[in-house]
Specification:
It contains 6 helices and 2 strands; from the N terminus they run H-H-H-H-E-E-H-H. By secondary structure, the protein is mainly alpha-helical. Helix 1 (5-34) runs parallel beside helix 5 (129-154), helix 3 (53-72) packs parallel to helix 4 (86-101) and helix 3 packs antiparallel against helix 5 (129-154). The protein is globular. It starts with a helix and ends with a helix.
């Protein structure tokens, strides 16, 4: 059996969202134990010109659900980007995972050659499905998950590499 686009995407996204969800659980417990308003962590940034934690999670969600939809020729689910609490961010992750898990592996057959057209600030970009996933979506997804981790770690949450990677 050959390695599929489904295997390179959906299980990867679902696993990392599980790890991110566990990290958010730790962050909520940390905020409660330290008497920190959770909004402080949710709006935290690594630098003034970077997006806050909430937006990092929203963009990771958008990248994953967009990839699943575009690669299967499905409608991209639209989420409002209004999450301001840990429970709302957890719900966003859960909705994203539910969408991804609702996609069947067979829907990905042949998607590596499907043309994906993205409307970016710099204009439209057309990519074949494999380049879209490997060179655009996965790096973008990991960037935002990693940045969410780094924001919380920078703000004192006791996290390690195992929190990010999960258990193998």
């Amino acid at each position: 059996m050959s390695f599929s686009m489904y295997q390179a995407s959906i299980p990867v996204f679902v696993r990392m969202f599980g790890n991110l969800s566990a990290i958010l659980d730790k962050a909520a417990a940390f905020a409660e134990a330290k008497k920190i308003d959770p909004a402080v962590l949710i709006s935290a940034r690594l630098a003034v010109d970077m997006l806050p934690l909430s937006k990092q999670i929203q963009i990771a969600s958008d990248a994953a659900k967009g990839a699943g939809a575009r690669l299967t020729g499905s409608e991209v689910p639209s989420f409002a980007d209004t999450e301001t609490t840990f429970p709302e961010l957890q719900a966003r992750i859960a909705r994203t995972v539910a969408f991804l898990q609702g996609l069947d592996a067979a829907q990905f057959d042949g998607c590596e050659t499907r043309e994906i057209v993205l409307k970016l600030a710099a204009g439209e970009v057309a990519l074949k499905g494999d380049a879209y996933l490997l060179h655009f979506v996965l790096p973008n997804f990991y960037f935002h998950v990693t940045t969410a981790y780094a924001i919380l770690r920078h703000n004192g949450l006791d996290l390690g590499k195992t929190d990010y990677l999960g258990t193998v």
